[in-house]
Amino acid sequence: MASVSSVSSASSIYGSRNVISGLASGLDTEGMIENAISAYKNKITSLSQKRTKTEWKQESYRSMIDKMSSFLAKYTSYRSSNNLMSTSFFDQAVKTVAKGSNADKVTATGRSNSDIRVDRVRQLASAATYKLSGTFLDKQTSDFNSGTVSAAAPGSMDLDKDMTVSTFSGSMTLAYGGSNALSYLTINFDETKTYDNAQELADEINRQLEEQTVIIGSKSYTGKELTEELVRAEVKDGKITFADPKNNNVYISAASDSVKKQLLGGQDLSSIYGKQVKSLDASGVANMKETMSTLEYLSSKGGSLQITLDGVTKTVKMPTAKDIKADKDDKRTPAERDQAYLEALQKNIDEAFGKGKLTVSDKNGGEKGIQLQFTTGQKGSTFSVQSTKGETLGFGESNQITSYLNTNKTLGELLGEDGFKDLEALYELKVDSNGKVTKVPVTDTDGNQLYSFKVNGKEVGRFNENTTLSTVINTMNSNSDSGVKVGYSKLTNELTFTAKDTGAASEIRFEGLSSKLFGAPGTYDDKGDGTYTKGQDAILEVSINGTSLGEITRSSNSVELDGMTINLKGTFGYETDEDGNIKYDVSQSLDEKGNPLFSVDQGDGKSKQFSAEKLDDGRLAFLDEKSGKTVYGSMDEDGKLTFENHKGEEVYARVDAQGRLRFDAGSDQAMDVSAVTEKTAVRDDKAEAVTFETSSDADKIVDVVKEMVADYNAMVTEIKNAYSTLPLYRNQSKNQRYEPLTDEDKEGMSESTIEAWEEKAKTGILFGDNDLRSLYTRLTSAVSMTGENGAALRAAGITVNYSNGLSTLEFNETKFRDALNNDPDAVRDAFTASTDSGAKSNGLMQALKQPLELYGKTEGGKGVLVSKAGSPLAPSTMYTNTIQQELDKIDKEIEKWEDKMSDQVDYYTSKFSQLEQLVAQMNSQSSYFAQLMGG
C-alpha cells in the first residue's frame, strides 16, 4: 500500500521505477504520464489540503481548551492558591487577630463595626456520640476492655466424628458465547458437599449461576433471569447439559482435575468449535463420596490455617493424625487426644509467629469437641484466622474468625435466625386495572423481603438478611438525611456513631432494624454494651462595645457576632484543678420563694421535685399532698434525709399513682429523696479577656482578580474571533480562498512569505462554528450578572464592556479596593456564591465554571470541545476524538487514491516502455535495410 503523504505535489510519481524516456520515439513520455494521472494528483492534493485544514481546526480548538483548562485550574480549583471560588481566599482581605493571654483559645474571621470581647468560655459545643463494642454485634469477637484480645469459633469440631466427603472438588468454568466468550461463569464444588442424584448437582450449579452476572450489550442478566433466559443446567438420563435459549454456545472451558476425572471422564477441554465439551456425566454422582473421621479428613485433605496477626499473614499447617500419634493403638481418651491436637497446633503457630504471640485453646473446656479460641495478650493487636476447611473447624459459613467485627458479615449472620422475626417488613400498595388495592411486599432483585433502616427517624436504606454490615455503614455515611456518621476501629473493636451537628439538640436515635442491630443509644449504659454521650452547646460570656451579654449558648463552636465569626478552640476564664478541669461550687437549688428544692426518685428515670420550708430550729417542713399535714425532715452531714410526723414517728416518702407526694409509716414503698443541687463554675477574676484586631490586606486579591479579568478577556476574545472571523480570499471574484500550500507551491518562497500565507489560510478556519458560538453566549451571559451578586460586582468595579461586537470585562482597581475595605463579605459572595451551597444564585466564578467545564473539562466526564478535538490534558482523548476520526478517514482516502495513482503509473509506464522498445526495434531494422540498399 502507498504511504499517506502531507500536502505535497506528488512530483516524484515514479518512485524507484525504471522509466524509459522517449529517446527512440522522441515522445515526452514522462509528461504524457503526468498528464494522464493529473486528476489523481489533484485529488490527492485536495485531500491533503483538507487534512491540513482539519489539523488546523484541531489545533485551534486545543488552544482554546488549554486556555479554559488553565482558567479553571488557576481560579476554581481547590488545589490552587488563587482559587476565587474559595471563601478562605477572600478572607485574606480581612485579617482578624485574637489578642491577649488566651488568644490561643479563640480565632476569628471577618470584620465587625462593633468592639467585640470574649470574656470567658465555659464549655465547647460537641456532638452526640454513641460508642458500641463490636462484641454487641458478634459475641465471638473481643471486647477491648476485657484486657486481652481473643476470638472464638462459633461452632466446634469433633475429631472422631464421621463425615461424608465428595471425591470431586475444585471448580468448573463455563464459557458463554462460543470461542470468543462473552462471559466466563465459575462453579465451585465443595468437597464437604455431596449429592444423592444428578438433579441435586444440577440444582447446585443453577444456584451458583444465579449468583453471577452476564452482560449482553447494555443489559445485565443475573438471578433467575440468567438461568431462565441465558444458561441453566438440566438433567437427562443422568447427564447434565446446559440449556442455551439464545443459542450463544455454552461449553465447559476449564475444570479441576478431580472434576475432569469424576464428571467429564477425563476428557480434554477445548475451545475449538466441534471439540467443545458441553455436558457432565452425573449418573454415578451418588457414589462419588467417601466416609472418614474429621481428623482423617483434615489429615488427608491438607488442612491449614491462614492467620493474619497485626498485618503479617502466614500459613499454619493443621496437625495430622501422625503428628498427634493417633493410630489404632491409641489408648487416650477423646479429651486427651483433643489436648494433644491443641498442643500440636500451638507448636505450629509458635513456629510461624514466635512463642507467646498467639495462643490457641478450647473454649469448651474439653466438652463437646474442640471450640477453637485464639488469644493475644496485647491490647491493640488484631488477628484473623481463616481456612478452606473452616466449616469443619467450626468457623461457620464465612470460613473465618476475627478478633474484630467482620464488617463483611451479613445482617442475617449477625442477628441470627430470629433477628428479623419481629420487624415490620416493607410493603407498598398497588392498584390493578379493576381498581383493587393490593398490599405487595417490597423485595430486592432476588425477591427477598426488604426492611426499612431508620436513623433519627429518617430512612437511610432498605436492607435484609443478605446485606453486609459494611454496606449498612457505607450507606449511613453517604446519606446526609440521618445526620449521623459511623466509624469502626479494628484496634479497639468499637463502632463510634457521631451526630453531624453539634449542640444539645444533636441526637442519635435508632428504631426497628437499626435498633436491633446497634441497640438503643442511652439505654445500654448500665449493661455496658454501649456508651451514649449527649451533645452540648457552647457556653461563653461576651461583651459588645463594653456591654456584657452575660453567658450565651450556641449550638456550634463557630459563633457569629455582628459580622465577625468567632471560632472557639478551648475554655478559659475559670479556675481549674490539677487535671485542667473547671472547678465548680455546688449549692442547693432554691424555688422562687427561696425555699430549698428536693427530688424524689420514682424509678425508670422519673422523678418529682418539691420544696420545703426551712424552720428556725434547722428542721425542714414538708407537705403531704394528700392529707395536707406537715412532715418534718432532717438532713445529716452526708445529705441523707429522714422524716417524722407531728407525733415524732418515722415516716417515709413516696409518690403515689396520682403523682402526689406522700409520707407513710411503712418503708416497703419508700423512695429515695435527695437535695436538688446546681453547679456554678468558679470564675478566675484574673483571667484576661480575648479582644480582636482587624486589618486589611487586599493586594493579593486585587492582583489575582486583575489577572483573572485579563485571562478571561484573552480567552473570550479568541473564542469570539474563532467563529466570527470570515475566511480570507486571494481572489474574491473567482471565489478563491487561501488554501494550504503544497510542496511545489513552497518552492522558491521565503519562510516569512510561507508563514504569512499560512496565517491567511488559517484565518476563519472555524467560521460559523455553533459550539464556539454557544460557548461564547454562555460565557457572556455568566458575566452579565443580575441580582445582589451582579450589583456587588458592579459596585466593586467589575463591569461588562461591549465594543465591536465583543463583550469583555473591565476592572476598576480603585473601586475594587474600596469595596474590599467597606464590604468585603459582599465582594466575597459575589465571587464564591453557589446554589449548591444554598445561595439564591451563583457567584461569578461558579457561573463561569459551569460553561467552561461543559465545553473544556479534561478530567472525569469530558467537555464538548475536548470530545471533539481531544487534548494532551486528557490523554485518553488524543486518539478517540471526533476530529481524529475525520483525520483517520481522510488518511484512508489519501491512501486509496495514492494506490490508484500508483496503479496508473505502473500501467502507463509499462505501455510506454513497450512502445519505446518497438520504436527502437523499427529504427534498428530501418537502419539495417538502409545499409543493404547502400544507404
C-alpha end-to-end distance: 53 Å
Mean pLDDT: 88
Question: How many extended strands?
Answer: 49
Stretches where pLDDT is under 50 for at least 5 consecutive residues are 1-11, 524-528
The portion of residues assigned to helices is 25-40%
Strand content: 25-35%
Dominant shape: flat
How many helices?
A: 22
Radius of gyration: 44 Å
For the report, how would you describe the main beta sheet? 6 strands, antiparallel
Structural class comes to: alpha+beta
Describe this protein's structure.
With about 950 residues, this protein is an alpha+beta fold. Strands 37-38-39-40-41-42 form a 6-stranded antiparallel β-sheet, with no helix packed on it. The protein has a 5-stranded antiparallel β-sheet with strand order 1-45-3-30-31, with no helix packed on it. It has a 4-stranded antiparallel β-sheet with strand order 26-27-4-29. A hairpin with a 2-residue loop joins strand 30 and strand 31. The radius of gyration is 44 Å and the shape is flat. It starts with about 30 loop residues before the first helix and ends with a helix. The N terminus is likely disordered.
How do you describe this structure in short?
With 935 residues, the chain is of the alpha+beta class. Helices cover 30% and strands 27% of the residues.
